[in-house]
Amino acid sequence: MKVLTSVKVNKVFRCLTTSAFIALLSLALISLSLNGCAQQSLSSHVYTSDTDGKAKQPTLGTKQPVSSTKQITVGAERYTKYLPLLAGKRVSLVVNQSALVSSHSALPSSTVEPEKYESSNRPKARLAKIKTSQRNQHLLDALLQRSVNVVSIMSPEHGFRGDKGAGEKVDSNIDAKTGIPIYSLYGATKKPTPDMLEGIDVIVFDIQDVGVRFYTYLSTLHYVLEAAFAHDIDVIVLDRPNPNGSYVDGPVLQAEFSSFIGMHPIPVLHGMTLGELAQMIVGEQWLDIDASNYNNAKLTVVPVQNYQRTAHYSLPVAPSPNLPNDLSIRLYPTLCFFEGTDVSIGRGTDSPFQLIGHPFVEFGKTAIPVKANSAALHPKHEGSLLSAHVFSYADPTILEGSDSKQTTHKRSPISGLDIATLIDAYSRFSEYNEGVNASGGSEETFFTRPDFFDKLAGTDTLRAQIQTGKTPAEIRQSWQKDLEKFREKRKAYLLYEDAD
């Protein structure tokens, strides 16, 4: 196993004059500080790992530890780990707006990784200020500045700029700034075609994920690996943190419910990064290719330095139009299930994935209008007024109007996968329908898209459990055997240790 170690400070950096250092320090102080955690020794190759998998798993609702002040370095910023693999190669990037790198490493002449400054004799406090920077340059620009021969871009759902709504077709195009062709992986095809791969030597994948099985960037990664390995093209995954990395929870997907919103036998919350999942996909041979193809191409994962999966990580840019902030990302694993129901989760409002509401069934006292916007061209209940509960804070949350049967739920945090929220919503529909039946009114259907709900869950068991009145504890207990098997299987592919 290759271990990354500190090296001598770049001589040019050591020779900075006092005035130059003060100028640099001043610029650093006004930059945006990003959180990190204790340094770990990490490998940059697919088949290595720095954890034996014996770390204790956090439970649902566990408080996330406060991050240390040490700056993390995302895989894309660790140039010395992958630029040699791109030298003389024709490169295709699979990226979107989230493929950002920090400004302090933006210059082509900067060949020393940020972590290598740690061997400096400068005081730690001063060093921390130097390392503070804002991720505001796109990887495409950074690589072109370093004379990497980028010949094409492939874009996932939401497009290269990340401005397309959920499910909206993404067209192939030409990047106006660079003239590089952009091929859509969310249009006529979701898998790179032979024409897209013509003349490509290596594919670099760098997209921010949110750690949930049905978030489609994972499926895009699967198809990229599948196409690349079938055509003997190497893949480099530049890893990024998982903002929901504290949780391993939910039903494990059953093969008959496989779709683009869930392709692998993993739980809803898998607690892994895309780099780790790429290793798992290849290692478990989940690709639809001949076994011999696994030996004809290479997967390299460049890990995040100073990253601990349970540390809080605030994304520097929205990963998709309807996940605009940390709260929406934290609520996403639970609220996305309502996409298979008649409950709105805020598409077409100012608070997507931060509320639950319905025009007739009351979830709260807040009236929220639903209107089409660029992030939701045809939102659920468009033109109506929702009776909504808006989640001001994710921990804890109290639903207005909850009856005595929901006491436990009222005191529980909304984090990870909160089944009580789904059960509460279903019970509200049942109570509403009892009332309208007594008065001769029309019922409202909760599971309006049962097949889609089942694809999100990866099974039809969850829907049946909700309908038959199972408690959250009973439902969660039914997953434990499969979750333990998954935790055991994933150990071989983990790059980052779990906190105790």
Structure in words:
46% of the residues are buried. Strands 5-6-4-1-7-8-11 form a 7-stranded mixed sheet, with helices on both faces. Strands 12-14-13 form a 3-stranded antiparallel sheet, with no helix packed on it. Mean pLDDT is 79; it is low at 1-69, 108-133 and 394-412. Helix 2 packs across helix 4 (124-131) and helix 7 (217-230) crosses helix 8. The chain is of the alpha/beta class and 500 residues long. Helices cover 27% and strands 12% of the residues.
What about the largest sheet?
Answer: 7 strands, mixed
Overall mean pLDDT: 79
Number of strands: 14
* CA-CA gap between termini: 24 Å
Number of helices: 15
Provide the structure class.
alpha/beta
Helix content: 25-40%
Q: How do the strands of the widest beta sheet line up side by side?
A: 5-6-4-1-7-8-11
Strand content: 5-15%
Task: Give the topology string: H per helix, E per strand.
Answer: HHHEEHEHEEEHEHEEEHEHEEEHHHHHH
Low-confidence stretches: 1-69, 108-133, 394-412
Q: What Rg, in angstroms, do the CA atoms define?
A: 24 Å
